[in-house]
Structures are given as C-alpha cells and as structure tokens.
Design a protein that fits this description.
Helix content: 10-25%
Number of helices: 7
Shape: globular
Distance between the termini: 49 Å
Length: 353
C-alpha cells in the first residue's frame, strides 16, 4: 500500500500497481464465470432471494446533504434484490455474505459510466456486515487467483486446499472477517441491517451508507426456523404477502482521514465518532414477487455502484476494481445469455407485475 499519511478527507490514494492488478482481475473473473450454466448466472451474488418493488423516499435532509438524489424531498421507484454472495448457488443454511442491492429508477442527469451516460438509474450496493473482507485491488487479485485454483481442482474433497494455501496464510485479517460474516445469523433478509462497507462521495464529503430495518429480528436472534435450502425466499414471500416492510437509509460522514480510511475496506468507521444520519425511507410494499416473470426480470438486471451520478462517485480501491470488472462480466454474461444489457426506466416499472 502507498503511505496514507497527510491525507485529506475524501482523498483517494491509488497505488501504482493497481492498473496492472485490475487488468489481471478482469482476466481471472472471465475465467471464473461459470459459462456452462443455463442461463449464465452472475459471478457474484448469483442466488437471489427475491427482487422486489420498492419506494425510496428522500427526506428533508440537512443542507450539506442536499446533493444528487438527496437534493430535495421526493420519492423514487426502486428495485431491491436480496441475495447470497457465494459464486456457487448453495443452501441458505450455509454461512455466506448476504447482499441487498438497491436500484433507483427515474434518476435524471448524466451518469458516471461512459456507455450508460443517459441511464436513469442510481445503484446502492450493501452487505450484512460493516466491513468487507478485501482491503483493495491486491487483495482482490490474490483471492481471485485462489478461487480459480479452487475451481480447477479436479478432486472434489481437495477443493478447499488452494484457498487455504494461496490466500489464507497471507491474509489472516481478511479471512477472519470473512469467517465472522459467514457466522452472522439471519432468519429473514427483510429484517437484517446492511452496510455499504466501501466509501462514496456525497458532494464534498466521503460517506458510507446503511439500510436499517424498522422491524429488527425476533428474540430468536435470527436463527432460521425452517430447514429449507431456500428459507430466505420463503420468509420474504410470507412477510410480503401480509405487510409492507420499511428500512431507514442512513449515511455516515468521514470525519478523520486516518481512522476512517478511503483505501481500506476492512476498516470500520466508528459510529461513536460519526453516527449514521437518516436521509431516506425505503418502503417495500406488500406484494407477490415469487413469479417466473419477476425471476426472469431479476436475472437480467445488473447492479453496479458505478451506475451513479457523479455526486455519488464510488471511492477506494475495491470500488475502482468493481468499475472495470462488473462492466466486463455483466456484458459477457448478457452476451452469453443472448440478452440485451439495458438499465430499466421509470416507465418499465408498471410493466413488471
């Protein structure tokens, strides 16, 4: 890592080796994509628990937050996808990273991605833990090499070996974080808290964000009552057949460049030093989402933190990796599935039952 002394708030500090690392990660990610599946699924977060319609209502926020989508009070339509992180579609009973991806539609203004400059979407990507298990591009390169070796291991019982030999001994902190995330108990994706883990711009500020459920998990501490491999989807179906669900969307401002680093996604920003401040309400209305039509719509969506206004530019090494890799893999996946890659528009919202 490049030394981070004398940094200013919101300042990025990419190392010289990053471009080469990202180029290598792109090649590895293409090799990691399971091209034999039909349809070809996402490399990351392929298992969906549900893609639901939602409303994202921006509130009358403090003046210094009135930027981008938070410029004024209004309600955006949104799609929210809940998922498991593992590249292998596996039982919900297995420990995993759990994701919440939000896509606002009807967002005007030029966006950051050159080939989607006129898209009308803004994405927010979150997981169920405050930090990520990868610090930067070099970490991402190292784990990608190990995962490809795992994929290519011909003897099934020995598949964990490349990860244990190539990545774990040299990334003890990262492996510890991953283990902790996998141990998180959850009974229902609609009743868990999610964090961005990586920083973003909010005008002149650097921020992280979180989605905080109004209804916290029950006294069972999130232990699933079902033994079904798909109990997350089943829990969501049951709850959304009966009631609306609400999350508070909140931002946390970077107040110290050293203790709240931009370039290290494994470091949690202290909530005591900078508490989360609510800026919007997410309402997921009562609905029936577990349909073939919605599953197909879900499969064709792409979520990328760079689907964004410049005012919400993603920051840090992990996000710079995401910019290149997510674009390449999404484009390849859509080509293999013979589907047009296109961001949804506001008028498309009513066409999806």
């Amino acid at each position: 890592m490049t030394p981070t002394t004398n940094l200013k708030l919101g300042q990025e500090n990419p190392p010289e080796s990053e471009k080469q690392a990202i180029a290598a990660i792109i090649k590895l990610s293409q090799d990691l994509l399971n091209k034999a599946s039909d349809p070809v699924q996402r490399q990351q977060h392929p298992k969906s628990h549900g893609c639901v319609k939602a409303e994202f209502t921006v509130e009358d926020v403090p003046e210094h937050f009135r930027i981008g989508v938070f410029k004024e009070p209004r309600t955006y339509r949104a799609w929210i996808r809940f998922s498991n992180g593992s590249s292998n579609v596996q039982s919900d009973l297995k420990g995993d990273v759990r994701g919440m991806a939000i896509k606002l539609v009807g967002v005007s203004g030029e966006k950051l991605l050159e080939d989607e400059r006129n898209a009308e979407t803004q994405d927010f990507i979150l997981i169920n833990y405050p930090v990520l298990f990868l610090q930067d591009a070099q970490d991402t390169l190292a784990i990608s090499k190990a995962l490809l070796a795992v994929k290519n291991m011909p003897i099934a019982p020995l598949k964990p070996l490349p990860f244990l030999l190539m990545f774990a001994p040299f990334h003890r902190k990262q492996v510890g974080i991953l283990k902790t995330i996998r141990q998180q108990q959850m009974a229902n994706p609609l009743q868990a808290k999610y964090w961005s883990t990586t920083p973003y711009q909010l005008g002149s500020h650097a921020i992280k964000f979180a989605a905080i459920p109004r209804e916290l998990e029950s006294m069972k501490a999130g232990v699933p009552t079902s033994k079904s491999d798909n109990f997350f989807r089943e829990a969501m179906v049951q709850q959304l057949s009966q009631q609306d669900v609400y999350f508070d969307f909140a931002v946390q401002v970077q107040t110290n460049a050293e203790r709240m680093p931009i370039e290290d996604a494994t470091v949690e920003w202290s909530e005591q030093e900078s508490p989360f401040i609510k800026v919007a309400t997410i309402r997921i209305p009562k609905q029936q989402f577990d349909t073939e039509s919605r599953r197909a719509f879900d499969e064709n969506l792409s979520f990328n933190p760079w689907h964004a206004l410049p005012e919400h530019k993603p920051l840090g090494g992990v996000n710079r990796v995401r910019k290149k890799v997510y674009q390449v893999i999404s484009k390849l996946r859509h080509q293999l599935n013979q589907k047009n890659k296109q961001e949804p528009k506001d008028e498309d919202f009513d066409s999806q039952p």
